[in-house]
Design a protein that fits this description.
alpha+beta; disordered N terminus; 4-stranded antiparallel sheet; globular
Length: 104
């Protein structure tokens, strides 16, 4: 059974739908930013390789233990621009259904 989560939205420098690239070439899409019991921001995200066509996004951490926002941001090189998202769409790494409307 999943733990009940605090639904109050924490302050964060990004929001659900934002996409990032890590130094190792992992694409990350933020699903939700939430508070933990100590009031720290936790980031729920899905990830996939940036060089593998057709690979689905998956949740790369235990459901009950998403990373702290600071840990998430340390692993990310930068937030993807609209042009970068378009590139990943054109080469088949992303599909239109995976791309949030903010990038279209």
């Amino acid at each position: 059974m999943r733990a009940k989560r605090n639904r109050k939205t924490p302050e964060s420098s990004f929001s659900a739908g934002d996409m990032f690239l890590t130094a190792s070439g992992q694409l990350r899409k933020v699903v939700e930013v939430e508070f933990d019991k100590e009031g720290r921001n936790r980031v729920r995200y899905v990830a996939k390789g940036s060089k593998i066509k057709g690979q689905p996004f998956s949740e790369p951490y235990p459901y009950d233990n998403p990373p702290l926002e600071s840990t998430f941001m340390k692993a990310c090189c930068h937030r993807l621009s609209g042009e970068e998202v378009t590139h990943y769409l054109m080469i088949g790494v992303l599909t239109t259904s995976e791309v949030p409307s903010m990038y279209r």
